[in-house]
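Hey, resending since the last one bounced:
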Amino acid sequence: MKYIVKSPLASKTMDFLKNKSYIFAHKRLAYIIMEQKKTEHITLNLIVFGTIIIIGVLARQTALHYGWDEFSSYLIFVVCSIVMGAIYLNLQMVFSQLLSPTIEKCFIRFECYRNKAIAVETPVIHSELAESSIISESIISKSEPKIEIETTSDTTEEVSNPSCSKLKEDMTELPKEESTPSTFNDMSIEKSNQPTEYEIFRANAMAEKERASQEKLDKVLAYTKQNLVLYLSETDLNRLCEYITEYYLSDTMPKVEQIKVDAQLKTIDIMHFGWNIGKAFGKPRLQTATFIKRVFAHTLRDSEISTIERKMSHTESECRIKLDRKIA
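The structure tokens again:
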């Protein structure tokens, strides 16, 4: 049996070796390309040098053919070689500085030339980038030893190093510790956004109170329309309902214009009507007396507010509107 203890950085080590071989291959390719360029450069120079020598020899033979002496012919050979070399160097400088950029701009439009230029530059760039990345990885990661325990069995089992497992546990626990405050913050924010039990009960109680208040107002308005529909015009009846609504919802006395009812209704009828709606709303007698005095000023013109307050619930005389304690 064969036990292999692997460190958590074993895979990184393998990747490092693979990348290192990758760098070596690219460096080798870049070296080959540079050697090819060097060979081409040497070959070109040899061709140019040989051409100059041939031209110089031809010039010397021409001088000898026309009867010049040996010294003069050799001098012509040297001068001709120097002149041809100078012409070549000047042409090369002019071509590299002036003509080469222009020609390159013209040829760069063709895809084959562009691909060739990219293919020449790519290996060097890739090798430099890969080398820099591997150097950075080698600085960050430190290789750990790989321990192999061999036995007579062919079975291979992998056993994790305790230090490696501890490191993994620390690495796995770190995000949890970092995420715990944010989780608590989210929970606290959600908890703060949720209404408390007091707020829920208060909202329910206020909603129930509002519903009961509206139901009471609706009953009073229905009572008003039912009992005064024979004694008021439609406009005056609607205006009276608006005054009653404002009187019930407001703590102050509303601004009203007097409403004239039919002569069939007497003072005691208006007093009974006022007492009935005031009792349903739970308003004080004085406040109700003041309200009906202003609204029905024509009918109650001979009665003071104090008198209305005192006689609102009297039943001695005959009346059309009876006292009603069960409106709301």
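The beta strands are 2-6, 147-150, 156-160.

Sorry for the duplicate.
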